[in-house]
User: What shape does this take?
Amino acid sequence: MIYQVKKLTVIILNYKHTADTVGCLNSLKRSTGGKSVDYLIVDNSAEKPYQDELKSALPDETIIFNQRNLGFAGGNNVAISKAMREKAEYILIINPDVRVGKSFFQPLLRHFSDSSVGIVAPAIKHTQKDKTVYGLDGQVDWSLAKPQHRNLPTLTDTKTISSQFVTFACAILRADMVRKIGQLDTGYFMYFEDVDYCLTARKKGFNIILDPSVVVTHKTSSSFKRPTDKLPINFVSHLRFVFKWLKFPQFIAPLLYILFLYPYLYLLWTYHLLKYPSR
Assistant: This one.
C-alpha cells in the first residue's frame, strides 16, 4: 500500500563527524523517494574548523550551526522547530553513522495510515562485542528504572511490533504528535531522551511501531575520546529519568542501583583502558 506524504523532513545531527554525515545523507538520497524529502543538517560542533569542513562538504544543503553543543535533544529540537514552522507532516531523526537501504521511507511511512501511530522505527543492525546483532525495541525494567534494549543475533520474524520504546538513532515522528506532546526533553543532554519521549507519547495515547522488515546499519561512532567520558552524562540523564518517572518510595531501589553502577563502570573501564591501552 502506498501512503501519500505531503512533507517529510529529515534531521541529521552532526558533531565533528562530517564524513559520517555525508555518508548518511547520500544513503538517504539513494533510497527510493529520498530525493523528494527535505533535509536539515544540525551542527553541534560549535568550532569553526568543523563548521567550515561541513559547509565545504555539503554546500547545497540547509545547515543549522549551533553556537554551542546543545546535546542530542537540544540539537534536534532546533531542527524540529524549523520543520514544524515549515509544515512538515513527518520528521525523521537519524544519526549520522546510520546507513539506510534502497527501500526505507515508504515501508516505514505506511504505518502512519493508522492515525494512532506516533513513532515508527526500523531494526538496527550493528556490532556488539564483535558480533553482529539486530537491535529492535525495548522495555523499561521499572524495578531499577533500567531501559533494556532487545538485540537478536538473527531476524527470523519481520512482523510489526507494538513497542514501549524505540531508539532515536533512526525514528520517524508524526508532526501532529509533536504538536500535542512537545519536543524532546532538553533536561537530557544525551541518553534516555528517546526512552523518555516514547513513554510520554504512549502516555498521551500514541502507538509506537518497530518494523523489522526494514533494516538500517549503525556504525556506532563515538563522540568521546574515552568511553569513560560518557559516564557522567549518562549518570545525570539516568537520575533525571528516575526522578521524572518514579515517586517515593519507588525510586529508592533505582537510585541505589545508579549510585553503585556508574562508579563501578568507571573503575572497570579505567582498568581495561590501562591494561589494554591499544584497544
Observations:
- Residues 227-275 form one domain.
- The mean pLDDT is 94.
- The radius of gyration is 19 Å.
- The CA atoms of residues 22 and 57 lie 7 Å apart.
